[in-house]
Amino acid sequence: MSIEVQKGVVVRAEESRYSSGGPLPAAHKLEGAQTGGAAFVITGSLEPKRLIPPHTHTYEDEVTYIVEGELTVEIGDQVLKAPAGSVVWKPRGVRHAMWNAGDEPLR
């Protein structure tokens, strides 16, 4: 099966797909099928003391931009802190987990 990747795409707020299951309710802005497997983009917040359990993406990389709060992330065997303004790249095929160890919501 081949996927034709668009040259560019705009996803308006009302066109986002929303998910409420799992640890991170989120608005899906771009999905792997729209980027030829290059990226998966969501927006969301993570409540204090919440964990996104370890998982691995097979088809796309994951990039997280921290707007508010501080994210703790495990990527492979590394545990890193990412304060507001940080960007975290989690490559496809590498197991990762994320959590909000703080007392305020993380965006």
Structure notes:
The chain has strands at residues 17-19, 26-30, 39-44, 51-55, 61-65, 70-75, 78-83, 87-90, 96-99. With 107 residues, the chain is an all-beta fold. It has one domain (16-99): Jelly Rolls. It is globular. It starts with 16 loop residues before the first strand and ends in an 8-residue tail after the last strand.
Structural class: mainly beta
One letter per element, helices H and strands E, the order comes to: EEEEEEEEE
List the uncertain runs. Answer: none
Q: Please, how many domains?
A: 1
Number of DSSP-assigned strands:
9
Which fold name fills CATH's third level, the topology? Jelly Rolls
Identify the CATH class. Mainly Beta
Helix content: under 10%
Amino-to-carboxy terminus distance: 36 Å
What is this entry, summarized?
The chain is mainly β and 107 residues long.
How would you describe this structure in keywords?
107 residues, 0% helix, five-stranded mixed β-sheet, globular, single chain, mainly beta, four-stranded antiparallel β-sheet
Layout: helices, strands, pairs:
Elements: E1 17-19, E2 26-30, E3 39-44, E4 51-55, E5 61-65, E6 70-75, E7 78-83, E8 87-90, E9 96-99
Parallel strand pairs: 3-5
Antiparallel strand pairs: 1-2, 2-3, 4-9, 5-8, 6-7, 6-9
